[in-house]
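Re: [help] complex structure
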Amino acid sequence: MKIILLLLINIYFLNAQIVIVTNKNTKIENLPKEIVQYLYLAKINKIDTIKLEPILSDDEALHDQFCNAILCKSQSQYNSYWTRLVFTGKKSISKKLEWKEIVKKLQDTNTIAYIEKKDLREEWKIVYEEN
Amino acid sequence: MKNIFFKLFTFLLFTLSANSSEFDVKAFGTLGGVYNDNSNYIYRKDIFQKDGSSDDLSFKTDTVVGLQTTLHVNENFSALLQGIANNDYDDKVRAKIDWGYLKYDSNENITLKFGRIRTPYYKNSENLNIGYSNLMIRESVEVYGQVPFSSYNGVEITYSNIIGTYFYTIQGGYGREELTVPNHSLNQEANVKIDNLYTLNLTFGTTALQARATYINADITASNQSLNQLFAGLRAFGLDELADQYEHKNKQSEYLGFGIFLDYKNILFSSEYGQRRLNSFSRDLHGYYATIGYSFHKLIPFVTYAKSEMDNVTYGANTVSPMLNNLLRSQNTAQSSKIVGIKYYLNENFDIKFQYEYIIPKGDFGSYHLSSLQKPQELNVFSFALDFVF
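Output below.
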């Protein structure tokens, strides 16, 4: 029984819902999934006239889940993709940040980040949520 | 001229970098080993290698180390330089500057590059030496081996944008290039001059599915003492038409390529088709490959089929000149390959790969894999690689 309970808890945490958030004052309400992908894969860096900086988390489990659920790529495919961008001089890869740094970064209105929905704060708003 | 350009460029890069906090150095490389079981052939990656595996384990084919330096001058301007060290066509390990350019990024939709730029023939033209970014140990030579130069000196402009939920990129370039192209089968080298090089590349799709088309046009001259004597001799005998047909002198040459790529969830698929039109003794050719892989988290097994075919006569050449016939025969690089392999990601810095290739060369001289046999045989090639990036 305990084992089943532990498994259920694990499954719950493994499937923790990821949302894309930005500062509440950012003039963006909703982003289609494709646009979130383009921002995180450096295809675009602006929505209308608003420049957006995508923030990466150093939480490996969260990053892995983000790659799978939002970018539809395994983390290894994501690494390959970014290696290609970096070593062809197209883009520089952003540093993965700790939670405290992400919170600080989201004080700016030109940033977006992926977080677990349970960590959502009042000063942020969700711009994309996987159904 | 090229050396002076790069010495100046390197000096500029390092001088500016001394006062800059935005100076970035990255390293990459591959430690690779190849074993070809057929001692009648020397298995090589492409025509720019002299030695390879011939019933022995060779570390020369794929092993490469490289450095990339980037200087971010400000938000819009940067300078990049990438150098590599590997085994070259003199069978010596040499370091060289692979490419380097000054870049202007509008941070909107436009980027401009000035300097030595990768020619955008294929999807992985720009990251050929970055094994970690590629699925296979080496790209299919049936497509990637068609054009024997990978960079040019010139300018490139790129425009990218989105339409609805699709993105597109238009890339155009202009420049020139000079290089030495070896013909190991005849133990010769040709001095190749490429002028009025125009490149156009279109990419369209989503992050999961992309299509690309490439068109490249250039005026190309290939010459050496032996070639000059051959065509002068034909003209001396009144065979001007024959000489004009086959001499590679300022000939308008074209490359046309298409590709389709899928990277969705766990499925990977890529396929490219390319054809070159050279209108000279360097024969016309077309080739394609298709690769499918499946990602089991860190492990990606894949299979590939690739084939290239000559579009004009080579080993069946029957002109009045035996020397010209021999030259045409040596141009045959047709072959087919069946590949099965795996890539395993160790972490963000390392991966390891294993692959098996079954190759059937078509040409008398062994296609890309040197042979003195008149009847082509099959090759079984086993390879492994450790790729790294830092």
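The first strand of chain A starts at residue 18 and ends at 23.
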